[in-house]
Amino acid sequence: MTPNSLPISRLWRLAAEHPDALTAALCGILVILGSLALQFGWLGVAVLILPAAYVIGGYSSTREGLTTLFQERELDVDLLMIVAALGAAGLGLWRQEYHLIVDGAVLILIFAISGALEGYAMQRTERSIRSLMSLTADTARVVMYGGEREVAIDKLEIGDYILVKPGEIIPTDAIIIEGYSAIDQASMTGESMPVEKTSGDEVYAGTINGVGALKLEVHKTPESSLIQRVIRLVQEAQTAAPPSQMFVEKFERGYAKLIVGLGLLLATLPPFVLGWNWEETIYRALIFLVVASPCALMASIMPALLSGIANGARQGILFKSGAQLEMIGKVRAIAFDKTGTLTTGKPEVIQIVPAAGYTETEVLQLAAALEAHSEHAIASSIVSAAQQQQLQLSTATDVQAKIGQGIVGKVNNQIIAIGKAEFVEATSELAQISQQLQAEGKTVVWVAKGAQLLGIIAVADTLRPEAAATVKRLQKLGVEHIIMLTGDNEQTAQHIARQLGINEVYAELLPEDKVQAIKQLQTQYHTVAMVGDGINDAPALAQASVGIAMGISGSDVALETADIVLMADKLEQLAQAISLGRRAQNVVKQNIVFALGCIVLLLAANFFGNITMPLGVIGHEGSTVIVTLSGLRLLRN
């Protein structure tokens, strides 16, 4: 390798990575050289150099403008800039005022620099979003009978066993079958602390294994893993234009035609009406084309919204499109599903009330011995409570489940029955306490030995720790109305609502009832958000102005239907999403006002202040760069 080959290769790589910057730099060098040639009176050299600056700096814009003109039959700002620059050059040759050729070249140069800066701004936003893609591993270590083998991720099949060593990226969503470790899920859920996981727990592709080796079983195809769904949704979000951007683009097409029409009038009427000379008229008309072009207006929206999407992704909030980032900032009412959204969705033993002559430990120990043979969620909570107390469980025999009633079997050769009061034929000894517990939204399980009542166990779906604080935060943010929608019974729903400070509750709802409730809210509040996690929430999520799903506990249908996903299942992210949406709205509004204000000021200066072409270009392109950089403010938390 020669000494100069490394720098040359670096230059080629830089040129390939930054073509817009290289184009602007070459154009700038040629403009400076052409200007110097004119200063020294070398007209022939200047006439050779400056056209090269036009070609190098304006080629990309000319190609885009002509493509839009011939393929879409529309005018755009790129073509207007080129026409203005060529018009300045033609006027300079006509009047032999060759500095006008330099003015046209400066227009193209600043347009090229502006394009390069906008490109960098957009790349920065896109890098923040696409950083998710770097989290995916290329291969997985598959455990086979003959040992281990590296397999490409897309070749994994359901049922494969894979080994993940400490510190490695988990290659695909899977279930732990052996091992224990703390998993760093920050990349997927925004959680700052590692989450401890062991056998039976699900782990997600793109998260990082801690200090323990894990053996995993693949339970879904790699392309349907959480991170792959996120990547697909992010890619769609980058290309989907929100309503405001679509309106501005539609406005730009008509506006460009209007500018061309007015430009033609300004290039022909003033000599007859105002007594201007033709040279001054054409020059002012060309400046008009530059300063009236809506470049800054076009750059007011998408950089800001993409920055907001990137910011949300870093916080574990996935916006599926810029439209939803805009919409969440306008929400006036929010409807919450109860189970799995406001609550954990996992029943827990809250209280044990033994009958006279028995202890809480005896009641729990006998109940857990029998419930260990059931797959019901309440049974799991009772067994889990016994395990937490490290109770020794006897073996139950002749176990029979009675659907909707309870379960019966033998423990230590004694018949144990667990279930509803009428199923266990319980006495009224604890009836009053049972009624009180049920009024508090708890499910009561009766436990009996033969004909003798042992006690009752109160089980409840516990509130998410952050639920009450989230409701208060939403109210402080000015959300006008917060309601709960649930299929649970009225008594339980009202109890949960009172704990959270929610005033309106719709209980015992079917999925179609939730849809009707959302429609009713929309007639009153217009922009309504729905937060849910289950398959039964999907229709309501689709009906809502903004559907928000819980990322971890949410069903696949809910995740696909929702517009926003809270990746860490943290309700406080909802308030963050609304705040981010409102910030995005404010930034977009500020950008639009600033862009329109600059156009008005530059137009006034053109007709009353006699600004030059370079000053008009600097004002026009400068405003475009400013609104682009303004949009990047949303990258900050």
Gist?
The chain is of the alpha+beta class and 637 residues long. The chain is 54% helix and 18% strand.
Characterise this structure.
- This protein is α+β, with helices and mostly antiparallel strands.
- 54% of the residues lie in helices and 18% in strands.
- It contains 25 helices and 21 strands.
- The strands form four sheets. A seven-stranded mixed sheet has the order 9-21-20-19-10-17-18, with helices on both faces. The protein has a six-stranded antiparallel sheet with strand order 2-1-3-8-4-7, with no helix packed on it. It has a six-stranded antiparallel sheet with strand order 11-16-15-14-13-12.
- Helix 20 links the parallel strand 17 and strand 18.
- Helix 24 packs antiparallel against helix 25.
- The two termini are 47 Å apart.
- The relative contact order is 0.10.
Shape: elongated
Compute the gyration radius: what is it?
A: 34 Å
Task: Indicate the mean pLDDT.
Answer: 80
Going across the biggest sheet, name each strand in turn: 9-21-20-19-10-17-18
Terminus-to-terminus distance? 47 Å
By DSSP, the count of extended strands is 21
Low-pLDDT stretches are: 1-6
User: Total helix count?
Assistant: 25
Q: Portion of residues in helices?
A: 40-55%
Beta-strand percent range: 15-25%
Largest sheet: 7 strands, mixed
Coarse structural class: alpha+beta
